[in-house]
Amino acid sequence: MTRPLIGISAYVEPADWAVWWGVRAVLVPEAYVRAVTAAGGRAVVLPPDDADGDVVAVLDGLLLAGGADVDPGRYGQPRDPRTDDRPDRDAGELTLLAAALTAEVPVLGVCRGMQLLAVAYGGTLHQHLPDVVGHDAHRPAPGVYGAHAVRFAPGSLAATVLAGVDGVNSYHHQAVADPGRLAVTGWAADGVIEAVEDPGRPFVLGVQWHPENEPDPLPIAALVRAARQRTPGALVAPPDDTALRRPAAT
């Protein structure tokens, strides 16, 4: 059986290897690739590119990976000094997302990817979560994951995919404030939104943590299953939301 093709959105960041230092490179943590491969998929790394979303026509699933913050201009807010955004990623990933929703390709958003989903569906973000919840437990220290309890809405896609899961890892300083037209289906004990989904589509799910770094990356395995089971049908319009296509505010 042919493995489903799972596109993983990538970063462009300075990188060091061998004798090369500070070279701009297209990057994605290998953990995403390993998780897709272990679930039976074929990972395809997608660098930022907002020219068009044509590549989605050959994909069976789309994984919006974690990373830097979303440009607050995308959701109509001034930039907090602690926001570290990447407008090129926003533009490229929103283009991919619009094409994936049109083609009904299964979508999973991880951490930043979940936040981008919320913005695309008309939502907003908390730009610095400790100001809201009063602690740093969701990002304890640079390069250090936190851990916390999580609960899911009964009967939701999140609850089905994550049956038996009551705790997750955590590394983020921003979070969804308003999910827009997405349904909130997961929460941390402090009320931080941990999962969102589009109940009107077979598989559009966002999770705030990093399942690729957990022993059993259930959301990624579920994305690959949904991609394998997908039967392409008539194309449908993407959600009625200008965030999918508008440029960031200047």
UniProtKB/TrEMBL annotation:
<feature type="compositionally biased region" description="Basic and acidic residues">
    <location>
        <begin position="77"/>
        <end position="89"/>
    </location>
</feature>
<dbReference type="GO" id="GO:0006598">
    <property type="term" value="P:polyamine catabolic process"/>
</dbReference>
<dbReference type="GO" id="GO:0033969">
    <property type="term" value="F:gamma-glutamyl-gamma-aminobutyrate hydrolase activity"/>
</dbReference>
<dbReference type="GO" id="GO:0005829">
    <property type="term" value="C:cytosol"/>
</dbReference>
<feature type="region of interest" description="Disordered">
    <location>
        <begin position="69"/>
        <end position="89"/>
    </location>
</feature>
<dbReference type="InterPro" id="IPR011697">
    <property type="entry name" value="Peptidase_C26"/>
</dbReference>
<dbReference type="Pfam" id="PF07722">
    <property type="entry name" value="Peptidase_C26"/>
</dbReference>
<keyword id="KW-0378">Hydrolase</keyword>
<dbReference type="InterPro" id="IPR029062">
    <property type="entry name" value="Class_I_gatase-like"/>
</dbReference>
<dbReference type="InterPro" id="IPR044668">
    <property type="entry name" value="PuuD-like"/>
</dbReference>
<protein>
    <submittedName>
        <fullName>Gamma-glutamyl-gamma-aminobutyrate hydrolase</fullName>
    </submittedName>
</protein>
